[in-house]
User: What shape does this take?
Amino acid sequence: MTDNLSRYLLQGDFESLFIEGMGWDNPPDYQVVLIEGREDFSGVALAEKRGVIAWKVDCPNGQPSAAEQQAAHRALKRHSRDLLIIFVSPQQHKWIWPELRPSGVGHRLVPHVYPADQPSEAILQRLARSTFTLAEESALTSSTVLTRVRLSFNADAVTRSFFKEFKEHRKRFAAKIEGIPDEDQLLWYASVLLNRLMFVYFIQQKGFLDGDREYLRHRLEMVRDHYGPDEFYAFFRKFLLPLFHQGLGSGQPVGDDPEVGRIVGSVPYVNGGIFEPHELEIAHQVKIKDCAFVGLFDFFDQWKWHLDESPTGEFKEISPDILGYIFEQYINQKEKGAYYTKPDVTGYMSESTILPALADRLEAAGLDSPALLLAGSDDTYIRDALSHGIHQEISVPGGGVWPWQLRSGNPDDYVEDLPPPGEDVALPGERWCDVVHRRDRYRRQLELLSDPHRTWTIDDAITENLDLPELMRDYLIQLANPEECQTAFDVLRSLTVCDPTVGSGAFLLAALDVLDPLYTILMERAQEIAAENPESGGPPFLAEAL
Assistant: This one.
């Protein structure tokens, strides 16, 4: 199968790839201009499968910037809520799967990139998993197709694969820990140590630990060379604990032995509780043999650790979301007083606090309010969930009146005796009364947002639960000159986020999901302005960043 798929890719025949090679269907006749005034930058629908549409965007002048990719996604999702985008340039093909961030704050465009003349094995495997046969056609639903395509192209599948192996390594590692008699406490401490080590793996890949991207592996070798092969517990007792508690945990000089300080090298102070002495380390004389870390590092070294959430789409790439995922699986133990807040909650709380504060500060700094973009914006800033299935027709039961309208009028008092709504019109768990009331709310919001003369404030946007991350990204893209860019950058830099009860860092990662795309878009807008007017040099922060 993959040979045929590879042939279509090499020929650049994406329409045949989907329809003849993968069992997809003919698409609606869509051609969408993605950026106003850019007729050369348009998307064409290639194929469709149960509501998921594959789009091709020709890029004769090279791959688009991140801001242009986001603009393309925004334009195309108005025509298809679930979509796969292929940016095709002469040298490179970039497949994009827009994945809602775990925090619920906007979409992360998950890329899968390969040279145009050399399709990667990774993309071929993903396409094979998104292929549908005639035998399964009658049983396919929009949900099954979406799930299959999503699992093929979304990086979360890698997270689950990592966790499956992680569980086994955690069990083996815990069995090699000495000095903690209680089994539950032993597993708890194993999780604490593994979380610390994974954190270190992320920052070592950036070169933050003595400039060494294989810091832990090399330090294990250095410790064994220094203390000798017969000192079985040296790596944990004489290196890791001082590294955690002093180097990373407090910023203090490491250890009484100058040689240990030399081995640790230059490391940053991590301002958080993850590296502080743990109660089990205080209560017990914990020991772990060096050999326990060899197998663990072998496992970790099989994966590519991306701190910046900019993967290439290859297998075995993981992002910091893995820490929260593992925390959710193991540390959500209410009987022990440990709680984990799910990403959709942390995301919503983060965007609802950070973005209004940012909007207020931008206006106070003399810039226009982001809320000005709302008037006449139609459905641009209506959340995807609210508009789900809105263009599907639904039939009112006989008599033209819904059953709950004949009773108290309160849907909470209504017991539904109709067949359940289909997934094409209903969100998970919705009854017919929920669908109808959500549609009414959508129509009311659309009417308000379609009025070009209506005055909006950020507080209004919060009240209506509009898509604030999308609004703020569009606002930054439209900054007009170096002065406005610099002002916006100064305001962004002035924001500080504090989580006084930080545990897994879930809220801080959600805050990162909110702020990171804004910095990226602002940087790209500054570069565009500098390119348009080279004499200006762009905003001052651009020179500092570059």
Q: What stands out?
A: The chain has 20 helices and ten strands. The CA atoms of residues 242 and 255 lie 6 Å apart.
